[in-house]
Amino acid sequence: MPAVAFAVALTVAVAISGCAEDAPEPGAPPVVTVVQDDAELLHRSPQRIAATLDDMRDLGVDWVRVTAGWSVIAPAPRATRRPAFDAADPQAYPRGAWAALDRVHEMARARGMRTAIDIAFWAPRWGVAGPGRRGGRERDTVLVADFADFAEAVARRYRDAAAFTVWNEPNHNAFLLPQWERADDGWRPAAPHLYRAMVRAAVPRIEAAAAGALVLIGATSSVGSARGSRPGERIAPLTFLREMACVDEALAPLRRAQCDEFAPLPGDGWSHHPYSLALAPWQPDPRPDNVRIADLDRLTSLLARLHAAGRTRKRLALYITESGYQTRPPDPTQTVGLAEQARWLPEAERIARAQPTVRSVAQFLVRDLPVRRGASARERWGDYQSGLRFADGAAKPAHAAFALALVARRAGPQRVSFWGLVRPGSGSRDARIAVLEPGGGWRTIARRRTRADGTFRATVSIGAARTFRLESGGRAGAPVDGAR
């Protein structure tokens, strides 16, 4: 975990005023907050969707990430032959096909948030070469031209969206197959080359239809294999990126047929999902081609080197568009407790924001998914339980920690350094650090005006073995027990 330099040393109960060292760099781009919860926003009643969006707005969310599901929106998704229609024209789709997405898009905009739309899984059966979709997974090659038509239709309908992402987790076997293919010297990645073709076909169509929106590529999952052994084995994100850019580990061009017509990768940014799973956010993955929260510098460094080598059209900024921690409870198969989730989300955010090219941070989900009624524990808990709320709507401690994030770290004997974020609001905001007194009350030990992005730093003279919380605007964050 990289060290953070804190600017001001303070004594207990001394008010903290602003200082030049904490001012944001001139022209520094903002870091937006992205939250996704397709189950709550696409498949619930209008009243519940409104309540979820109100909650997201009150938490300080900027972008509502939502999926434009190709097989959900397309006509005759189970047919083996493409229906006769203009797939690039959103008006040519079946009546009501866009209704769920339309509703979220308009309701989010009415609350001052923008949508970030994934043009994504899964393909209709007629959109793949071969027998098609079985059990909800791609078993054969996506037809690139058909996908590009759909991408244009989405971009034309939602041209005022903040961003569009091409597909979701193409290095994950649940979303694109085959991941690997046999070659004379063993197994070679296949999915990166198919995905590159999808990107090359779709990005120009999106850019033309929605000129003001960002176009993101990648959307890679955090872990996988750097050496394949079967078609469905997930590919490590850095392995995937290098193959997509047609370079080897030394960034030398690959001499393969798939790379004969290589052109620099398009897009405005690289999307990534740096789940740390059971690892604390400051713990790196020992496998060098994986990218969890602690490994973001691996990805930002590679993106910079690829641009310098002429493999990307722009220097791609990094957009974290999905992340989170599943908790126990409710899921007895998980190892991360509620207090750990509440503490690790702010830690992860601090690490992410320390990367100069990170342009967004993310949370998945708002609410845990309901329990499946299966025969085994794994089946019952097969969906994500990473919400800020339980499935019944009750708030987890992480809900308060997401709105008001606080990280406490030892800074020497009887000194604690704090990093904090007041997410709701805009411009400079009031922030107070409080300590829990032995009698049970909370006492303010420091006051701060945040930067324009809601963040602040402070160092306070006080014992590290205390319980702290962040307060602002009449609300309180989750307690932080002790300084790490």
Task: Briefly say what this structure is.
The chain has 484 residues and is α/β, with parallel strands linked by helices. The protein has a domain at 31-323: Alpha-Beta Barrel (TIM Barrel), CATH 3.20.20.
Output the number of helix runs.
11
Radius of gyration computed on alpha carbons: 23 Å
- CATH topology grouping of the domain at 31-323: TIM Barrel
Strand order of the largest sheet: 2-3-4-7-10-11-12-13
Helix content: 10-25%
Strand content: 15-25%
Morphology = globular
- Main beta-sheet strand count, sense and barrel state: 8 strands, parallel, barrel
What is the rounded distance between the termini?
Answer: 12 Å
- Low-pLDDT sequence parts: 1-26, 131-139
- Structural class based on helices, strands and sheet pairing: alpha/beta
Average pLDDT reading: 91
Name given to the CATH architecture of the domain at 31-323:
Alpha-Beta Barrel
Total DSSP E strands: 21
Structure write-up:
It is globular, with a radius of gyration of 23 Å. Residues 1-26 and 131-139 have low confidence and may be disordered. It has a domain at 31-323: TIM Barrel (Alpha-Beta Barrel). With 484 residues, it is of the alpha/beta class. The chain is 24% helix and 22% strand. The strands form 5 sheets. The chain has an 8-stranded parallel barrel, surrounded by 6 helices. Strands 16, 17, 19, 20 and 21 form a 5-stranded antiparallel sheet that branches. Strands 1-18-15-14 form a 4-stranded mixed sheet. It contains 11 helices and 21 strands. β12, α9 (338-353) and β13 (358-364) form a beta-alpha-beta unit.
